[in-house]
């Protein structure tokens, strides 16, 4: 039976976070190791001391040890072992806000069965990229006089926010960092008429034929109808006869259902 134990849990992590993480770890382990939920026994061991503040006090790395006999006899580079360790590492890393390095291994330190994720190491959000974001930030102009710290993907250059979300220009362009310069690319939009979409962020948009303005909350359901010159026309599945007009920039903040 698999027992994923998490050691060196920082003292600042509340019980509620660990309760939610326990369920997530049970799900991951049952999905990837093809076993019953009742078999999985995650547990957490809080650090007895506060986080180290300098290297003399050692590292703040969180350690996952997976105690199990189910991998007995597997080769060093067994893909299922790697997959389980990576998924558990990512779940703990995310639950602790990406602030701590997380290392996972199968108990007894089988040499090939290890996975490590450094703090602040976000995945690129571009579909199919698979790269990670740079640990270094750079300032990008986000308003007339304001700048925000951003991170670029080390593989494709796509610019993300400090917290790892995709950034967009005002007119909907996607910024890429290439050779130290920001390059703006307008990616094609492919919406299907009659298909339902959901807003992924609050949007301030035009509504109806007479162009009143409205705040659309995050999670609002919209049905794409047609293009009207440069604007994307939607209706609501909840309000009869109400239409919304989205500009190219707004369309980055909807997702198909
Ligand atoms: Zn990328």
Describe the secondary structure blueprint for this structure.
Elements: E1 3-9, H1 15-33, E2 43-46, E3 62-67, H2 79-95, E4 102-106, E5 114-117, E6 138-141, E7 147-152, E8 159-161, E9 174-178, E10 181-185, E11 196-199, E12 203-207, E13 212-216, E14 221-228, E15 231-236, E16 243-246, E17 254-256
Parallel strand pairs: 1-2, 3-4
Antiparallel strand pairs: 1-3, 4-5, 6-7, 7-8, 9-10, 11-14, 11-17, 12-13, 12-16, 14-15, 15-16
The structure holds zinc ion (ZN).
Zinc ion is lined by residues 124, 126, 129, 131, 153, 155-156, 158.
In brief:
This protein has 257 residues and is an alpha+beta fold. It folds into three domains: 3-117, Macrophage Migration Inhibitory Factor, CATH 3.30.429; 138-185, no CATH class; 196-256, SH3 type barrels, CATH 2.30.30. It has helices spanning 15-33, 79-95; strands at 3-9, 43-46, 62-67, 102-106, 114-117, 138-141, 147-152, 159-161, 174-178, 181-185, 196-199, 203-207, 212-216, 221-228, 231-236, 243-246, 254-256.
